[in-house]
């Protein structure tokens, strides 16, 4: 019988990476289940029940309930596991943190996932993923930079870690490593990212530290 | 929070799905607000004029007590917490997670794939393809997922028999002018049933774009 939380994750999935950080920050013990997106395991019949939206992350609770969507999962974890709160108390600040997360979640990431690439590659021979994503990110990162300029301290919002940081690090790490984005064009993003990425809870969550890393 | 001296302004464009979600939320919470119309089809949110007013250049943006809030989901959560009358989220964290997953399926799984900048990005690479052809597979995927969630958890509305934030996201995802021409509601029976129930509620009534100043 399942005792711990079970997280369906792929090492390079930015959305899974966010939840790995959240679980580490809250010191929640979990069992990872690795889903190889490149091999299409998220779409297999075997995973039909486990991954109801054919995507990672999926969080399985001990009672069998399955949660999907990284923002919904993060909100659930922050409420049920109150140690190391990731959303501020102040309602306006809380809204700004959520707004920042959504900028990444719905404003950027949908255009750089496998669904996007697999579709467009049916139409375009020699499709340059890097060029495509750079074009998306160069304007979205400007908005992110503006938001950070208004709100940052050591971290995205002041000097306490928030959910915004759990979304920022995977997005920036992926942008640099996979899409060759020049992060020096966004000095505040770069500064906050550098303050976060080597913290142990963030480091241990990164793709190359995962057991399924290839 | 007392509503007697609140100044609420919504940067919006009538009929478009994302700002419509917020408009529905404000009406469900019985909050008076001033709409400020930004011509989204003409990309007015990117204009210099608008950037003076709203440096984020994003619609929807909610101005409340002098603060600018962006992102419909963040705004929805703020309104739910600050104006507790007419609860729009269930009590338990688990049920809230299910409602939120419905909202997010729309917010990040459907809406990005009928946004005008999505078409711009694609048309940089594939020129001889129209919006229906571009959006169709993405929308089918998103609406199929949403239909499954509502089939499992819905009743009269998206989640059980009470209106929740999920309805404020689901309804414009079909009836919004930026998406209604792209999707056939008949393909999604669980969603169709809910949408038709929501058609009856005054808070969800369509506001024609021509009625903005």
From TrEMBL, chain A:
Limits of the GST C-terminal domain: 90-214
Domain GST N-terminal stretches: 3-85
GO CC, alphabetical: cytoplasm
Pfam family name, one: GST_C_3
InterPro entries in UniProt: Glutathione-S-Trfase_C-like (IPR010987), Glutathione_S-Trfase (IPR040079), Glutathione_S-Trfase_N (IPR004045), GST_C (IPR004046), GST_Zeta (IPR005955)
GO biological process, one term: L-phenylalanine catabolic process
One GO molecular-function entry: glutathione transferase activity
Database matches in PROSITE patterns: GST_CTER (PS50405), GST_NTER (PS50404)
Transmembrane segments: none
Family statement drawn from the similarity comment of this UniProt entry: Belongs to the GST superfamily. Zeta family.
UniProt-listed PANTHER family: MALEYLACETOACETATE ISOMERASE
Name assigned to this protein: Maleylacetoacetate isomerase
Organism: Paramecium pentaurelia
UniProtKB/TrEMBL annotation, chain B:
Gene Ontology biological process terms, A to Z: glutathione metabolic process; L-phenylalanine catabolic process
UniProt protein name: Glutathione S-transferase
Ranges of residues in domain GST C-terminal: 92-213
Entry's Gene Ontology molecular function annotations: glutathione transferase activity; maleylacetoacetate isomerase activity
Pfam families: GST_C_3 (PF14497), GST_N (PF02798)
Domain GST N-terminal: 6-87
């Amino acid at each position: 019988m399942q005792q711990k939380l079970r997280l369906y994750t792929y090492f390079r999935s930015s959305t899974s990476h966010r939840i790995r950080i959240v679980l580490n920050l809250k010191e929640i013990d979990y069992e990872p289940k690795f889903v190889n997106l490149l091999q299409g395991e998220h779409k297999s019949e075997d995973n039909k029940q486990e991954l109801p939206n054919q995507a990672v992350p999926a969080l399985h609770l001990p009672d069998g309930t399955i949660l999907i969507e990284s923002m919904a999962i993060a909100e659930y974890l922050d409420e049920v596991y109150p140690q190391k709160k990731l959303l501020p108390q102040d309602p306006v600040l809380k809204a700004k943190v959520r707004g920042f997360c959504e900028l990444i979640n719905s404003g950027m990431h949908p255009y750089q996932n496998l669904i996007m690439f697999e579709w467009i590659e049916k139409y375009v021979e020699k499709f340059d993923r890097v060029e495509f994503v750079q074009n998306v990110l160069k304007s979205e990162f400007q908005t992110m930079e503006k938001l950070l300029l208004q709100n940052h301290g050591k971290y995205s919002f002041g000097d306490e870690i928030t959910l915004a940081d759990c979304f920022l690090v995977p997005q920036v790490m992926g942008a640099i490593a996979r899409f060759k984005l020049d992060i020096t064009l966004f000095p505040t993003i770069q500064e906050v990212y550098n303050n976060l990425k080597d913290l142990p809870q963030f480091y241990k969550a990164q793709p190359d530290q995962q057991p399924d890393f290839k | 929070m007392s509503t007697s001296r609140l100044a609420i302004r919504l940067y919006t464009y009538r009929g478009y799905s994302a700002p419509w979600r917020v408009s529905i939320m404000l009406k469900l919470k019985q909050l008076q607000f001033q709409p400020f119309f930004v011509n989204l089809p003409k990309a007015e949110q990117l204009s210099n004029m608008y950037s003076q007013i709203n440096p984020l250049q994003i619609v929807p943006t909610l101005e409340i007590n002098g603060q600018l809030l962006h992102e419909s989901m963040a705004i929805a959560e703020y309104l739910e917490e600050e104006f507790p009358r007419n609860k729009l989220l269930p009590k338990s964290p688990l049920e809230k997670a299910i409602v939120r997953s419905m909202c997010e399926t729309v917010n990040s799984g459907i809406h990005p794939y009928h946004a005008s900048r999505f078409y711009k990005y694609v048309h940089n690479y594939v020129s001889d393809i129209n919006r229906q052809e571009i959006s169709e597979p993405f929308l089918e995927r998103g609406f199929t997922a949403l239909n499954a969630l509502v089939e499992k958890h819905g009743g009269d509305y998206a989640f059980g028999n009470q209106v929740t934030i999920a309805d404020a996201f689901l309804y414009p995802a079909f009836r919004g002018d930026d998406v209604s021409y792209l999707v056939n509601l008949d393909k999604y029976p669980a969603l169709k049933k809910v949408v038709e129930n929501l058609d009856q509620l005054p808070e969800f009534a369509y506001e024609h774009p021509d009625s903005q100043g």
